[in-house]
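DM from R.C. (forwarded with permission)

"hey, sorry to bug you on a friday — could you get me a structure for this? deadline for the figure draft is monday and I only need the backbone to look sensible"
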Amino acid sequence: MVGGRGGAGASTLAATVARRLARRTATVLVDLDRASAGIDVLLGLESADGVRWPDLADARGEVSGADVLALLPRWGACAVLSADRARPGAPEPAVVADVLHALTSEAGALVLDLDRAAVVAGESLAGACDAVLVVAPRDLRTVAGVLAMRAHLGPPIVPTWLLVRGPAPGGLGSTELSEAVDLPVLLSVPTDRALRSALERGGVPDTGRTARSAARIVAALHGNLA
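My reply, with the result:
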């Protein structure tokens, strides 16, 4: 998952999709945003026991996926590998590669909250994913942001779809947005007006419009990747 621009809500949707996937398979939500204060804060897990990326700085080479998985904090059934607000900084690319390779042997699904700047620079793991979903508000900033990433998304690199969000201040339609960036729309995700206040109260709700959208996203992904 990656935002077409800042504030698109990609982290929230990544979290809700991961939680939905965790109902049927072992799932890890992975925070790869270089500027992140920690996706654990979004989930209300900042005080939860468990390792974060800085704790895995020496995880190189043959890493035990089972050991890493056992040490991660849990958000319900979903394991979470987060940045740490008290120890900011991006993990080394080699550490990320080795840890995620190890986790793929233990988990049925990894949901990556990708760093937008890394995608633009061609330094992300987008190309290693089964699919990339771009969270795309219907505005011109999103068009510019997605076009900046476009060289590193879409076939033949990686199957890529848009998750279109409203409203559209200038009237930009889903079809127009799709045509402008040459990527197909997977779904339109309705605005969840209750979400912002829920996040401020401490965590992503497991009911409501965003949770229902996550269920639709997972179903659509399975249908397109089957």
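R.C.: lifesaver. The CA atoms of residues 198 and 205 lie 7 Å apart.
me: no worries. The mean pLDDT is 92.
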